TrEMBL record, chain A:
Quaternary structure annotation from Swiss-Prot or TrEMBL: The complex is composed of six subunits: RnfA, RnfB, RnfC, RnfD, RnfE and RnfG.
Keyword Transport (UniProt): yes
Family: Belongs to the NqrB/RnfD family.
GO cellular component, one term: plasma membrane
Protein name: Ion-translocating oxidoreductase complex subunit D
NCBIfam families named in the record: rnfD (TIGR01946)
Coiled-coil ranges (or none): none
Entry's transmembrane regions: 20-39, 45-63, 94-116, 198-218, 225-244, 256-274, 286-304, 310-328
Main function: Part of a membrane-bound complex that couples electron transfer with translocation of ions across the membrane.
InterPro entries reported in the protein's UniProt record: NqrB/RnfD, RnfD_bac
Residues modified as FMN phosphoryl threonine: T157
Cofactor(s) listed: FMN
TrEMBL record, chain B:
Compartments it resides in: Cell membrane
Gene Ontology, cellular component aspect: plasma membrane
Name by which UniProt lists this protein: Ion-translocating oxidoreductase complex subunit C
Chain segments carrying region Disordered: 1-22
Sequence similarity: Belongs to the 4Fe4S bacterial-type ferredoxin family. RnfC subfamily.
Domain (4Fe-4S ferredoxin-type): residue spans on this chain: 357-389, 397-428
Length: 343, 442
């Protein structure tokens, strides 16, 4: 027995979570949304996701060779690839379905993650970094939105349609949904938005299935309420206060439901903003970060150039996480603030 | 009723306090060979006063305390000194130890013990007895008790807080002690009251020991002792000195200061019982309650164990191992020490022997820090463990000190939570010791 007993410093046992379980649980939580996306947009979307995952894993494999590490199976590269795939539009022309997701994955793993020292050392969410990289590189491919269940037919996403619909608009629609139904042929309801029978990225369309995954992660205590609660709350409050003004309804009339259910908000709030590595470390910091994300998302969506604001909002907040961490330290036990200042 | 607790941090590990005990069979088998380390306490090791070949009687002095912060060591068994050798303590440190083989008669075992009256003794006489009988803190830190009981001149004690939290998973030694010896504990408290003259006496325990709490409350009433039981939330580390004091009286012990700075003296409930035995039964500290548990043990239980018994004999007492353990631990799973074989002796500070299976240990590969903040969440001291880890990793000790390295109580809440399985506590320990050494060099 002498050789078999493990000698360690305390504590001698653990709650059982590991990097591996965390990463694979998040991937698992995203599977329902992926299945929905493929069902809605057809097999072409599955290929895009597969290219993302394979190229991200391959990139991680190369990095492992270079750094002489073995982090291939911790699930982080797979998760990055999966998130990138879910953030891709469901259809791309020509060979773009290969090189766009591949470019995003390589940028995410090699530059955002690898160049800073691998898992845990990246300051920006790799999947978002990859997405934004290809968004600016191949903007045209990244903004072609297929209409669900109608192969080859493209149209705008709900948010995009509303944004362009409002330009020079003088009709009578007084909320985003009625405006949307005015500019489109087939009408949609809040329920369609909730289910995900709308245009958008492969994985962002079904609020319902994303929420199912999110609840699983909340139960497993992998994502923190501090982040998603403050994010959602701030976002809804600002939308409620200000979005109504765009339709001439005045303050406090914003259509919260429409904004919550459309675009990548649910995906971003529960799966991107809550990324452990790129969010603050203290509960206080997480709340500040969530508020920042919520406010910026509102700002970019309502007043920005692009209809979507989630990715950019989270990335901007990622950048200032070190500052948040510095000013949101918990109070040290047994240290009186005044006493410390006098020292 | 609202349960008290410390406000920030803490974790909720599974209790696994399933240990059974039997009233009639509380005493573990007395070892035929006892290995008695001479360093069973914080402070200077005791000086050996026997040599090989000596015959000692039960409870004879074999190690004499040297200096103020040190403690006497007595033999738990009568017999012959067959060897004096260095042994590994559970902590991994090496200490000289006296090995005694049972021989001759037990002078006290099995005989009715005379309860001597203590009311006539004055404070210093009582402290002297406690010192002479080698009483140390039995919560695990093993600080010599007579030192704690010697108040500085002119200091009046506000609160005496008795720690019965027993927040470590698996352990139920204090629980069993309180269920079986509430009267004796009450007498021990009366002795302490005489020595320290505190304004208040509180006994703090986690609410999972409510039955013991009710029993104690009733006994206090019967014996007309003015002391109160405070029930605390089940949360680790409720029994850490600073957190316990915060939970019960609502005050924080300032960093780097003793509990006395907020008017508190803190003693473990087992220590109170040992004080009773020392003063009323004239017994030195040669026995203590030990929980033997863990998934690899056939019949977990709580026993009254003689110091110097080995882990092996205790595990055999519990029916042996049913599975190859991954770790054998002295103490609780959160702050205890692993040992590399089962011949390590029980010392005054050993509250439990745990044989944990691989599944219970839940070890996994260490990865980079994920900055998830679970360590920050768990830390009861408001530290940023992940940051401290990095600072020490980069040899930035001064910055680590500024971040509160020395405030770390090594409770292990951070590492318990860490999905990257970083050896956080180990890092902080090594950081602290490097800082201590460099200070010594200056």
């Amino acid at each position: 027995m002498k050789d078999k007993l493990v000698i360690t410093s305390s504590p001698q046992f653990h709650n059982g979570d590991s990097t591996l379980t965390v990463m694979w649980s998040v991937s698992l939580a995203l599977i329902p949304a992926l299945v929905w996306g493929v069902a809605m947009f057809g097999l072409s979307s599955l290929w895009i996701v597969l290219v993302s995952i394979v190229s991200a894993t391959f990139a991680e494999f190369i990095l492992n060779k270079i750094y002489n590490k073995s982090s291939l199976w911790d699930g982080s590269a797979f998760l990055t690839g999966l998130l990138i795939g879910l953030n891709m539009p469901p259809q791309m022309p020509g060979l773009a379905w290969i090189y766009v997701p591949l470019g995003a994955s390589f940028f995410a793993i090699f530059i955002v993650k690898g160049a800073f020292g691998g898992l845990g050392n990246n300051w920006m969410n790799p999947a978002l970094g990859g997405r934004v990289f290809v968004f600016f590189s191949w903007t045209k491919h990244m903004t072609v939105w297929e209409v669900p269940m109608l192969d080859g037919v493209t149209g705008a996403t709900p948010l995009g349609a509303v944004k362009s619909g409002l330009l020079g608009y003088s009709g009578s629609a007084n909320n985003p949904l009625s405006l949307l139904n005015e500019v489109r042929d087939n009408s949609i309801s809040y329920f369609d938005l909730f289910l995900g029978k709308i245009g958008g990225s492969i994985g962002e369309v079904s609020a319902l299935l994303l929420l199912v995954g999110a609840i699983y992660l909340i139960i497993k205590k992998i994502i923190r309420w501090e982040i998603f609660a403050s994010y959602l709350l701030t976002f809804t409050v600002f939308i409620w206060i200000f979005d109504g003004t765009r339709f001439g309804n005045g303050l406090f009339t914003g259509d919260i439901l429409f904004h919550l259910l459309s675009g990548g908000l649910i995906l971003g709030v529960f799966f991107m903003a809550t990324d452990m590595v790129t969010s603050p470390i203290s509960a206080k910091g997480m709340i500040i970060y969530g508020i920042g994300c919520g406010f910026l998302t509102f700002l970019f969506r309502v007043y920005g150039a692009n209809p979507e604001g989630v990715s950019l909002a989270i990335i901007v907040m990622n950048i200032i996480v070190p500052i948040i961490n510095r000013y949101s330290k918990p109070r040290l036990f047994g240290h009186n603030k005044k006493e410390l200042e006098n020292e | 009723m609202k349960l008290k607790s410390f406000p920030k941090g803490g974790i909720h590990p599974p209790h696994r306090k399933n240990s059974m005990y039997s009233k009639d069979d509380l005493n573990a088998t007395i070892p035929s060979i006892a290995i008695i380390p001479l360093s069973q306490h914080i402070g200077a090791p005791a000086k050996c006063v026997v040599k090989v070949g000596d015959i000692v009687k039960e409870e004879d002095l074999i190690g004499e305390s040297v200096g103020f912060v040190s403690a006497n060591i007595h033999t738990p068994i009568p017999g012959e000194v067959i060897e004096i050798k260095d042994v590994y303590l559970p902590s991994g440190r090496v200490s000289p130890a006296v090995v005694i083989e049972t021989k001759g008669e037990f002078t006290r075992l099995g005989k009715p013990l005379e309860v001597s009256s203590w009311e006539g003794l004055d404070k210093s006489e009582l402290v002297d007895i406690i010192k002479r009988q080698g009483i140390v803190g039995l919560g695990g830190a093993t600080f010599p008790t007579h030192v704690k009981l010697t108040l500085p001149e002119g200091v009046e004690l506000e609160h005496l807080i008795i720690n019965a939290a027993e927040c470590e998973p698996y352990l139920s030694s204090d629980h069993v002690l309180m269920l079986e010896y509430s009267k004796e504990i009450t007498t021990g408290l009366k002795i302490l009251k005489k020595i320290l003259d505190p304004k208040n006496i509180y006994v703090g325990m986690e609410v999972n020991k409510k039955d013991a709490g009710e029993l104690l409350t009733n006994t206090f009433k019967e014996e007309s002792l003015d002391a109160s039981v405070v029930l605390l939330k089940n949360k680790y580390p409720q029994g850490a000195e600073k957190n316990l004091v915060r939970a019960i009286i609502g005050k924080e012990i300032p960093s780097g200061k003793l509990p006395l700075s907020v008017g508190v003296i803190n003693l473990n409930v087992s220590t109170v019982y040992a004080i009773y035995e020392a003063v009323c039964l004239n017994r030195p500290l040669v026995e203590r309650f030990v929980t033997i548990a863990g998934g690899a043990v056939k019949k977990p239980g709580v026993y009254r164990v003689r110091v110097g018994s080995t882990a092996k004999s205790l595990i055999e007492e519990c029916g042996g191992l049913i599975e190859e353990p991954s770790k054998v631990i002295f103490g609780g799973p959160m702050m205890g020490f692993t040992v590399f074989d089962l011949d390590v002796p029980i010392t005054k500070g050993t509250s439990g022997i745990l044989a944990l299976t691989k599944k219970e240990v839940n070890a996994a590969k260490t990865t980079n820090c994920l900055k998830c903040g679970r360590c920050v969440d768990g830390c009861p001291m408001g530290l940023l463990p992940s940051k401290l880890y990095k600072l020490i990793d980069h040899n930035k000790y001064d910055e680590a000190l500024d971040e509160g390295l020395n405030d770390c109580v090594e409770c292990g809440s951070c590492a318990y939570n860490c999905p990257a399985h970083l050896f956080l506590v180990q890092q902080f320990r090594s950081g602290k010791s490097i800082v201590r050494r460099s200070k010594g060099a200056k």
